[in-house]
Specification:
It contains 5 helices and 5 strands. The protein has a single domain, classed as Response regulator (Rossmann fold, 3-Layer(aba) Sandwich), CATH 3.40.50.2300. With 127 residues, the chain is an alpha/beta fold. Helix 4 links the parallel strand 4 and strand 5. Strands 2-1-3-4-5 form a 5-stranded parallel β-sheet, sandwiched between helices. The protein is globular.
């Protein structure tokens, strides 16, 4: 296990395989992971909890949730959000317009997941 302060990560996705894959992988590398299958409940969790990162399913980001996600990001001092998506550029562009800091393709690529999470949870550099 890596020697680091444990970043808290919220994973919101309907796909149980993806939630379990991320949870097991990230916990094995020292992260504290909370999962939720429901977008509305996940956004409420994000409002109540202190997370360093939210990994959210891009297909859940319908119009009614985009504003809610942006509100959560604003209210919680700029939460970093990574959008998990299929390899579809339209979805990825929408995710970045929503405020996502990165995109994570939904594939079983452990190294890519870890690189993305490490980049997203790295301490912010002061300018």
């Amino acid at each position: 296990m890596a020697n680091r302060t444990r970043a808290r990560i919220l994973v919101v996705d309907e796909d149980i395989w993806w939630r379990e894959f991320l949870s097991e992988l990230l916990e094995a590398h020292g992260y504290a992971v909370v999962t939720n299958k429901d977008i509305r409940a996940g956004l409420n969790q994000a409002r109540r909890g202190q997370f360093d990162l939210i990994i959210m399913d891009s297909t859940a980001l319908g119009d009614e949730y985009i504003n809610a996600l942006q509100d959560v990001m604003h209210d919680q001092d700029g939460y970093k959000v990574v959008i998990a998506s299929p390899p579809d550029w339209r979805v990825i562009r929408q995710a970045f317009r929503t405020g996502a800091s990165d995109n994570l393709l939904k594939m079983r690529d452990r190294d890519a997941v870890l690189r993305t999470v490490e980049r997203a949870t790295a301490p912010r550099r002061s300018e």
